[in-house]
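User: For my dataset I need records formatted as: sequence, then structure tokens, nothing else. Please produce one.
Assistant:
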Amino acid sequence: MYAQNYARTYRANSILTASPGQLVLLLFDAALNSLAIARKACDESVTDPRKLEVVHSQLVKAQKIIAELQGTLNLEAGGEFARTMYRLYDYYDRRLLEANLKKESAPIAEVERLLGEVRNAWSEMLRQQEGTAPQAALHHVA
């Protein structure tokens, strides 16, 4: 019980004290976590109603997070790169919708892999340039 309270407090504090760039990274991590849960549930059994509900709820959660990431893109300042990311997020959403309708894990795995690459690139950029213009140009993080 106490461990859960400490974990919840730690998560809340990490969000409240995170930089805008780190908040974007937390969104990537949350989406990837939901995708992993959905893929695992989908692989385990597509006939178990409880597993189907897990797949559905986790995919919807990931789609909402991806929509939030897409919504924070600064298309004016980010130029062609931000527009490309916008289209990529659209692609992720369509693939997850397909995965949810068909209850197939392949599209989930694809989005998980692609989003993981974007997440790792974002993380690397934060390590190299925390608080600089390239980060602010892509997402509304200032």
